Amino acid sequence: MTIKKFINYGLLGLLIIALIYSFISLDYSNLINLQFSNLWHIFTSLLQPDLSYVYDGTGEDLVHLMFQTVVIAFYGTLIGSVLSVPFILLSAKSTWGRFQIFALAMRGLLNLMRSVPALIYAILFVRVVGPGPFAGALALGVQLIGMLGKLVSEELDRVDGTPIEAMHAVGASNVQAFQYSRLPQVLPIAASHILNHFEINVRSATTLGLVGAGGIGAPIIFALQQRNWPRVSVILLAIILVVVVIDFFSSRIRQKLL
């Protein structure tokens, strides 16, 4: 048996042990409280959405809060896209030449930024700027800096070097080669990443209201706590509809870009 096969079998064995331990360590004692009558009640209640909550003109209805949720996602995506530009340039290995240690340090910072969940950022920004949609937009924007910084900087390093070498051969400077050869190759891919993360941000923005960062998150948790299943149903339907519509249009745009 080769060393590679031995390592693969060892990793597979560790994975199986981890799965078995996960199933064994779970607490199944609450299953004795499971009542199918309660499940049936929840299911039938979810089939009767509270349509009176869709729009009532108070500003706290479903239409206003879902619109606010989409705006939070859009503003957060805009903030993250703009502020990620210097991070992208500083974390690209092609920017630093022989001094690759600086690119590695910046990528480490980006990994740290994107490893923190948006909900944690939302809690921090609620304390800094106060509760409201702006805190949610900042939370999504800061996390997006880490995401876009990593993805787009890697694309900068993977571009086709032939046009860049051709421009250097005719006397172009590094800045001109970057502007006219490297950047045009990356922009469509970067735009695709931005659109994709806008979809992700819309889904993330639906939970930020749990910590006071605006959007539909607070009403849905209140409805769950009150066991108001018809209201939960209409909110979930609205979230699904919005996500599906945004996914449809953004996927069409991404296809044209790429």
TrEMBL record:
<dbReference type="InterPro" id="IPR035906">
    <property type="entry name" value="MetI-like_sf"/>
</dbReference>
<keyword id="KW-0813">Transport</keyword>
<dbReference type="GO" id="GO:0005886">
    <property type="term" value="C:plasma membrane"/>
</dbReference>
<feature type="transmembrane region" description="Helical">
    <location>
        <begin position="134"/>
        <end position="152"/>
    </location>
</feature>
<keyword id="KW-0812">Transmembrane</keyword>
<feature type="transmembrane region" description="Helical">
    <location>
        <begin position="7"/>
        <end position="24"/>
    </location>
</feature>
<keyword id="KW-0472">Membrane</keyword>
<dbReference type="InterPro" id="IPR005769">
    <property type="entry name" value="PhnE/PtxC"/>
</dbReference>
<feature type="transmembrane region" description="Helical">
    <location>
        <begin position="230"/>
        <end position="249"/>
    </location>
</feature>
<dbReference type="InterPro" id="IPR000515">
    <property type="entry name" value="MetI-like"/>
</dbReference>
<dbReference type="GO" id="GO:0030313">
    <property type="term" value="C:cell envelope"/>
</dbReference>
<dbReference type="Pfam" id="PF00528">
    <property type="entry name" value="BPD_transp_1"/>
</dbReference>
<comment type="similarity">
    <text>Belongs to the binding-protein-dependent transport system permease family.</text>
</comment>
<dbReference type="GO" id="GO:0015416">
    <property type="term" value="F:ABC-type phosphonate transporter activity"/>
</dbReference>
<feature type="transmembrane region" description="Helical">
    <location>
        <begin position="205"/>
        <end position="224"/>
    </location>
</feature>
<protein>
    <submittedName>
        <fullName>Phosphonate ABC transporter, permease protein PhnE</fullName>
    </submittedName>
</protein>
<feature type="transmembrane region" description="Helical">
    <location>
        <begin position="65"/>
        <end position="89"/>
    </location>
</feature>
<keyword id="KW-1133">Transmembrane helix</keyword>
<feature type="domain" description="ABC transmembrane type-1">
    <location>
        <begin position="66"/>
        <end position="250"/>
    </location>
</feature>
